Amino acid sequence: MKLWSGRFDSDTDALVDELNASITFDERMYQEDIDGSIAHAGMLGAQGIIDPAEADKIIAALREIRQDIADGKLTFSIATEDIHMSVETELTARIGDAGKRLHTARSRNDQVALDFRMYLKNRIPQIRDKVLTLISVLHDRAGENLDTIMPAYTHLQRAQPTTFAHYMMAYANMLRRDVTRLEDCLERMDEMPLGSGACTGTTYPIDRRRVAGELGFARITENSLDGVSDRDYALELMSDLSILMMHLSRFSEELILWCSWEFRFVEMSDAYSTGSSIMPQKKNPDIAELVRGKTGRVYGSLMGLLTVMKALPLAYNKDMQEDKEQVFDAVDTVNNCLPVFTAMVQTMKVHPENMRKAAAQGFINATDCADYLVKKGMPFRDAYTIVGRLVNHCIATGQTLESLPLEDYRKMSEVFDRDVYQAIDLKTCVETRLVEGGPSEKSVKAQLESVAAFLKERGYHEA
Questions:
Q1: Measured between alpha carbons, how far is residue 4 from residues 1, 41, 50, 108 in Å?
Q2: Is 155 an annotated catalytic residue?
Q3: Of 10, 155, 277, 461, which is the active-site residue?
């Protein structure tokens, strides 16, 4: 018999039971559900709402149930619908009527809101720590490649010279923002909804702040309608995870290009590559491709929950049962992608000679050539036009700016002198970009120090 069956004269249809049940996916919240129930029972006893001795009996039995689930000794069926009723049914079976008192002054509405918040509160630090590990790896790879010159691209066309270290720091900064977004989300999520009841609280003299403190919440929710119907915290988390996966996907796209024979900038370790069933020469960057593909999966979870929530009136509606599978899948996907992606980046081989060769082509020092003229007193737009003509001349004659004879330069402008070759040397092009945030060794070292400080502030220690 269902715990809520008092109002009904007959059983629900078996297909309804199957559709209605959530135990197949919300059972993963058993730890949070039981921890919340223990805190609730303790508060009921302390407030004299139930007999303190019965509260102690409930708490002892809940701890046994929690351990039995952890040990695999206790499983549940769809007959009990969800993790809340499954635990309560088992509790009553073990200790009798005392177990029936546990649900005093609460509803499944505020119970699930509590469980869900607690579950995500416990997962955010795990994800954050994995992002910090990836940032640390990027920091190390950058430190190893301060003088590894490569092209920077715009429109996928070679644009200006940079270094592999500068490139790695770009992604490190994206991931730093991901960390702070997760931290902000955790701070806003840190509100305890239990005590909101079904929607308007309870007439019992409960102590919500005691329960919040015992469960590690910073504060309680301030409105009972909002307390049971809010899923902003889940949406915000999935938005943060979507942005994080977008960063991993952009990085994956670059790595996929870079490890192709057309680039050969990097080579993936065999441990993070796969082969072809028919083409024996293939070494495919499948891990990067999977991360890129799974990004769409996380986006889909975010859009799914946004769609569920978009027209729901206050307070709780059964539609909201559709929140957990999507959020669980997004959390699982990110948790699974991060360590493999990190190891892939950590173990990939960098080919500096191929990067340098690519940087020597495509006239990526053309801006520096124009800047050379500007520093000699020429207006930038005039310098821009002259260098554009020089590039056209080089293309027509099969030369580069480095190989072009000085007399050809001087045909375009008498301002050019032999020192132009030093000005357009790739090393010079990089090292004279001393602006904060730029690719020079001095600038990148400052970025490395900033990232190291960021990691230290968060107590990160490399495993």
A1: 8, 20, 21, 11
A2: yes
A3: 155
